[in-house]
Amino acid sequence: MSVSIVSTRPFDDQKPGTSGLRKKVKVFQRLNYLENFVQSTFDVIGDFAGQTLVVGGDGRYFNREAIQIILKMAAANGFGRVLVGQGGILSTPAASHIIRKNKAFGGLILSASHNPAGPDEDFGIKYNISNGGPAPEGVTEAMFARTLEISEYKILQAGNIPLDTVGTFQLGEMQVEVIDSVHDYAELMKSLFDFPAIRELLAGGFAMKFDAMHAVTGPYALRIFEGMLGAPLGTVMNGAASEDFGGGHPDPNLTYAHDLVDIMYGEYAPEFGAASDGDGDRNMILGNHFFVTPSDSLAVLAANADKVKGYRGGIAGIARSMPTSAAADRVAESMGLDCYETPTGWKFFGNLMDDGRVTLCGEESFGTGSNHVREKDGLWAVLFWLNILAVRKQSVAAIVQEHWKRFGRNYYSRHDYEGVDSSAASRALQNVRDKSPELPGTQLAGRTVSTCDDFAYTDPVDGSVSRNQGVRVLFEDGSRIIFRLSGTGTSGATIRIYLESYEADASKHDLDAQDALAEMIHAAGEISGLRKLTGRDAPTVIT
Ligand code: G16
């Protein structure tokens, strides 16, 4: 087997976004496109000679082909060993765990998360560092810079590895271990949660549904819920993973997880429903006719952490992304804990967890997790909820309503305008920036504006600064309107508007969030001029 050095030319569009490089499959299939990105990554991550790399993905179209290329490039570039999930499958949190457990140098995770899959849809790749978390901005910037100057890549001339067979294979000087995709992750979950108590809950007639949305959590959920926890067959819906995710859009929210939503809002709704996304790091939690916002979910998990085996000893602190509601801040305050506000992107939590400052983290984009790995973790959140339900023996709605009674309710919603013209999207944000000097002190949506700024974050651990992370209109009563452009889309731009308003009075906690936020929604449209600029009169997705 010989190493080929292949000449190539740079592409100018390989800048990683919020979570790695995401493009249409057809873009990744262009000659040398994937190879350039992988070589650029290998060129900047340091000395990995003889070390271990973890490789796996969410099983979407092009996953297997990409893995074979990566394996041959890893061998040619001098890795000593690659751990790859069977069939090329590793959920994002499982990959994070495997990196940590095996003290790997890093990992390449192949996923475009919740974006649809198939020959005409999306693919993605990201590099995670040795702590198991997404590469920080300094590394992704170096990767991007390298993609702009790359002139050659190295690849081993060799046959393909049989990815479906668990075992050890030789690729040149490098070993490839094809590992069970689920086993180590399932053991980690067992160590964190009280499986016997959850088993008892499920055996006692407590009904739940988990929607794997034909994506990567299928095999994980089947083994954990229906296998280890004894839930009845059929508890896991859409558990057969497919390369096009069943033609669906595996984003666990009220719009896209409609199979589950129909059941949970139907006549014989189970007590508990949950869904995860394409690569298994997001989660949505539902009770019988009840939706738990991701921001509230983080706050409830934090407030109940003492009831859960892995967190009983106490949590160090909490972190949330800036657009996530401040519900968790109130819990942190009551527990005497620090609460950190970071830019959007799980990568910003890594330093805080490594430094022992936080245990639980969450984002409004249906992401919750803890320091057990360095990614958000969909099934972990579902198991955390199940553990709380097993201990408290109350409904999901009762637990959340009691929480609001104690801490107040942060009414919250996100409005997305997907696939809009990029320049119109930038203009909408600029309109708000242009008004920002005059807004403080004025009345908007029946409230007084206190500040208007572009969110910037200084990492308290390494001092790195990230600017322009969202335009904020902050009100004196704690309400907020935030405008941001998504960093994960692959066509046009997506404008996200995050709306939040705090209500302490328990007699006013049963409003529909859209009604409670109606004035804010109107004000957001007015100050951004969004509807006129984009020609849209309603958001694509409301969560
Ligand atoms: C990624 C990031 C998250 C982020 C989300 C949405 O999630 O890991 O931190 O909140 O994208 O980002 P944006 O608002 O820029 O689209 P995932 O599940 O897509 O990897």
Please describe what this structure looks like:
The chain is α/β, with parallel strands linked by helices. It has three domains: 180 residues, Alpha-D-Glucose-1,6-Bisphosphate, subunit A, domain 3 (Alpha-D-Glucose-1,6-Bisphosphate, Chain A, domain 3); 223 residues, 3-Layer(aba) Sandwich (Alpha-D-Glucose-1,6-Bisphosphate, Chain A, domain 3); 134 residues, Alpha-D-phosphohexomutase, C-terminal domain (TATA-Binding Protein, 2-Layer Sandwich), CATH 3.30.310.50. The chain has a seven-stranded mixed sheet, with helices on both faces. A seven-stranded antiparallel sheet has the order 20-21-24-25-26-19-27. A hairpin with a 2-residue loop joins strand 20 and strand 21. Helix 2 packs across helix 5 and helix 10 runs parallel beside helix 11. The chain is globular, with a radius of gyration of 23 Å. The termini are far apart. 54% of the residues are buried. Bound molecules: 1,6-di-O-phosphono-alpha-D-glucopyranose. The site of 1,6-di-O-phosphono-alpha-D-glucopyranose has 17 residues, from loops.
